[in-house]
Amino acid sequence: MKAIDHVVPLTAPVSITGANNSDVVGLKEYHAAKVLVPVGALAVDLTITVEKCSNTTPSVSSAIAFRYRKGAAVGTDLIGSWAWAASTGVVLTGTTDNGKFVEILIESSELPEGYPYFRVVLTPASGSACLVAVVAVLEPRYAQAVPPSAVD
Questions:
Q1: How many separate domains does the chain show?
Q2: Which of the four, 10, 41, 44, 51, has the lowest number of CB atoms within 10 Å?
């Protein structure tokens, strides 16, 4: 049996005006997570960061560097090359990046000892609204009919 990816919505499509944290994801039972952040209309710049987390609360969290690539606008299947974002994150530009998405790759082996969890933080540049969502596609370590929960 081939391992089937586990899809987990981390943030419902929502219009945000301030910093917004996704659900916390645990990678103990997973090799990696590809996180998709599609955006609608961006009135202002939107910064996307990833935080390592000590647990699901999280008791301790801090921003980390991560791999990402930016997809083209809706209606095309073009996507950029993988690049590294510093812990300060990647910025989508208001109006220029409307209707695009960011794909983030987090491998469990890249999370430091004591931090088996992560979350995505979305921060608009000001109080203006940004329409966004966050969805994770997790690659299980073992083939199972029903993958284990990643968001305790």
A1: 1
A2: 41
Q: Which residues of the chain have pLDDT under 50?
A: none
- Single pTM value for the model: 0.91
**Domain span at 109:** 6-139
Q: What percent of the chain has pLDDT over 70?
A: 95
- Are the CB atoms for 111 and 92 separated by under 8 Å? no
What whole-number distance in Å separates Cα of residue 42 and Cα of residue 55? 31
Note the pLDDT of residue 152: 67
Q: How many C-beta atoms lie closer than 10 Å to residue 18's C-beta?
A: 10
Contact 15, 143 (CB under 8 A): no
Is residue 147 in a domain? no
Give the largest Cα separation in the chain, rounded: 48
